[in-house]
Amino acid sequence: MMKRAEIETLFTRLAASNPSPETELAFSSPYTLLVAVVLSAQSTDVGVNKATTVLYALADTPAAMVALGEDKVREAIKTIGLFRTKAKNVIALSQILLDRHGGTVPHDREALESLPGVGRKTANVVLNTAFGEPTIAVDTHIFRVSNRMGLAPGKTVEEVEQKLLKRVPKAFRLNAHHWLILHGRYTCLARKPLCPSCPVADLCGFKAKTL
Q1: Contact 11, 62 (CB under 8 A)
Q2: What is the CATH number of domain 30-129?
Q3: What gap in Å lies between CA 23 and CA 128, rounded to an integer?
Q4: Ramachandran angles phi, psi of 125, nearest 5°
Q5: Which one of 36, 118, 128, 200 has the largest count of C-beta atoms within 10 Å of its C-beta?
Q6: Is there a catalytic annotation at residue 45?
């Protein structure tokens, strides 16, 4: 497992290479972010952005989405996986936002997780990106990187999340989610990590480093 000083160095380097990391999902409001993250399950950000370009041209508020209707939402997002279920969830969560929250996205974990299609990871992304909370949403990239490097090893997503919240220095916690996702997406790849070009390879506990 990585030592505290190594973790500090790791995030110092990641921050130096990308001082202001951002999600790669396209959004213009907490609502469009929420919908994009719901749509991103088992889909790529690139694929979701193509779909939401079409969808948000038709509706980008809860009221407009409900008025648009499930059939048209489904048609707009049919290029991404699980589009039928996702269309149903988008309409349902939009209606709940109108009925219970005045058409706004709540700044509250419990309220977010009560929405259709919204789990802990999605709630963490919204709390972090829309509301500036120092949450860490553990996706497949962060789970892999945390275990592979010895940063925050764990057998479950929530175990890794809780370890990261304890081990990531407070100064880096707000952006840690983005740095780790981008590191996993572009450097610490699943099948063949790009160890020779990795800026933190010397800190990493992965024994089978690529040459």
Answers
A1: no
A2: 1.10.340.30
A3: 10
A4: -60, -45
A5: 36
A6: no
Q: In this predicted model, what pLDDT tens digit does every residue of 162-190 receive, in sequence order?
A: 999 999 999 999 999 999 999 999 999 99
% residues pLDDT > 90 (the chain):
98
Annotated active-site residue 86? The verdict is no
Give the active site residue among 121, 163, 202, 207.
121
CATH T-level fold of 4-21+136-203: Endonuclease Iii, domain 2 (1.10.1670)
Q: Are 37 and 125 in contact (CB under 8 A)?
A: yes
Q: Which of 139, 166, 192, 209 is catalytic?
A: 139
Domains of the chain: which residue ranges? 4-21+136-203, 30-129
pLDDT at 210 over 90: no
pTM of the shown model: 0.95
pLDDT in tens, 119-131: 999 999 999 999 9
